[in-house]
Design brief:
Helix content is 30%, strand content 19%. By secondary structure, the protein is α/β, with parallel strands linked by helices. The protein folds into 3 domains: 34 residues, no CATH class; 280 residues, Alkaline Phosphatase, subunit A (3-Layer(aba) Sandwich), CATH 3.40.720; 101 residues, 2-Layer Sandwich (Gyrase A, domain 2). Helix 4 crosses helix 11.
């Protein structure tokens, strides 16, 4: 068995025969790797609701679906850059003109919407970091305690849907996958570690697909951050971003080659997405909140292209803050949360704040000093409203039952979850925002 010492791979449940098999390996004189020691130690752990690492017999003949996110991959990169492996993917399957993100176009909300079929205002992950006035606590993607706390996450991610219906799942990074949501984790999951190489991530996914039918995951997530990271360091149209996109093309080529070499390659569905696009901003486009209003009664929930502000003093105070902001803002607009355009689907949750400011493309409202502009004048950012063209993401899919060489119109982020349940023959969670069949009728062979 291969062991990757820098990967925190965990099984939530291990059947008793797993421990027996490992003990047999010891008896045979083979010894155990550190990963096998970990599996043996977990063998006695109590089994909670989920697959237990074994597929229900009714799932054995179903395909495996690999959901891949290329964080920050803007839709128009597919046409602007030379990407032979993405072209290879398009020839094999379906490409959407774009994928429209949810509001705001930020990493954690959009990744979690992709796998739950819910808008951010309904699943509760409204930003990468935010303050919840009901809990009187802050969530942060940089705080492992909150990232791994399942009580922050609403909805039902696709891996929980699968596990609860007896289907094995595996996540090589994805927001939410480190938490027990509804008491369930993926069978295989990893604590996020950005130092793990792209090659290792791809190799591990291919290993999962090679597993015997009984234990082979049918839901797999895979995440890459290269484009997003490069975009935050320099302009969107700069050479570093182009190089990062081309590196993702190389990683995709390795994944395609690995899948092509599998004996079960005709039973693998590959779905490529991104969470949002990118636009340029600069130091001259940052507006400091305290230059516009007195902030003594304001606690920010989050800031940036969209800012959420908690205002003490009741509804009258919130209205005064809104009006003062709108009197001075020239590149944005402030709303009471209940006044936000319905298309943003963020009115329902107090986590978004009492006053929400939506900035124009390229402009940022800051509640603290941002130093990036002291280093360079222009860099990429994201988070603006979904209707901003530069925020559009990608959607490509190929595999059994999928049309070939076809381009379809723009699709919606929240419709990806019901598509996945349809392709895997699973029952969707109730109350989702995504519409069953809306993408399926465009991508599936008739």
């Amino acid at each position: 068995m291969l062991w990757f010492p820098y990967m925190n791979i965990r099984r939530l449940r291990v059947r008793r025969f797993t421990a027996l098999a490992l003990l047999c390996a010891i008896a045979a004189g083979g010894g155990l790797s550190p990963l096998e020691h970990q599996a043996l130690a977990q063998a006695a752990a109590p089994v909670s609701a989920g697959s237990g690492g074994i597929n229900h017999p009714g799932h054995l003949a179903k395909p495996s679906l690999v959901l891949v996110s290329f964080d920050g991959f803007r839709a128009d990169y597919l046409d602007r850059l030379s990407l032979p492996n993405f072209r290879r993917m398009m020839a094999r399957g379906v490409r959407a003109q774009a994928l429209r993100p949810v509001f705001p176009a930020i990493t954690f909300p959009n990744h979690y919407s992709l796998v739950t079929g819910l808008y951010a205002g309904h699943h509760g992950i409204v930003e990468n970091s935010f303050f919840d006035p009901v809990r009187n606590e802050a969530y942060s993607f940089r705080d492992q305690a909150t990232v791994a706390d399942g009580t922050w996450y609403g909805g039902e991610p696709i891996w929980v849907t699968a596990e609860r219906q007896g289907m094995v799942s595996a996540c090589f990074f994805w927001p939410g996958s480190e938490a027990a949501i509804k008491g369930v984790r993926p069978t295989h999951w990893n604590k996020y570690d950005g130092t793990v190489s792209n090659a290792t991530r791809v190799d591990r996914v291919v290993e999962w697909l090679r597993q015997p039918e009984a234990t082979r995951p049918h839901v797999i997530t895979l995440y890459f951050s290269d484009i997003d990271s490069a975009s935050h360091r320099g302009p969107v149209d700069g050479p570093d971003v182009a190089q990062a996109v081309q590196a993702m093309d190389t990683a995709l080529g390795s994944l395609l080659d690995g899948i092509d070499a599998l004996p079960n390659r005709e039973r693998v569905i590959l779905l490529l997405t991104s969470d949002h696009g990118m636009a340029n901003t600069s130091a001259t486009q940052i507006v400091q909140l305290d230059s516009l209003v007195n902030t003594s009664n304001i606690r920010p929930s989050f800031d940036g292209p969209v800012a959420g502000l908690h205002v003490s003093g009741g509804a009258g105070s919130a209205q005064r803050v809104r009006d003062e902001l709108n009197a001075k803002l020239t590149n944005g607009r402030a709303y009471l949360r209940q006044e936000l355009p319905e298309r943003y689907h963020l009115r329902e949750t107090p986590r978004a704040g009492d006053v929400i400011v939506v900035m124009e493309e390229g402009w940022i409202l800051a509640t603290s000093i941002i130093n990036r502009g002291l280093i360079q004048n222009t860099w990429g950012a994201h988070g603006w409203a979904p209707e901003v063209a530069s925020m559009r993401a990608i959607f490509l899919i190929s595999g059994p039952g999928i049309r070939k060489g076809v381009t379809i119109p723009e699709v919606e982020n929240v419709d990806v979850y019901p598509l996945m349940t349809e392709l895997l023959g699973l029952k969707s969670a109730v109350g989702i925002d995504g519409r069953p069949g809306r993408i399926g009728k465009l991508v599936r062979e008739r």
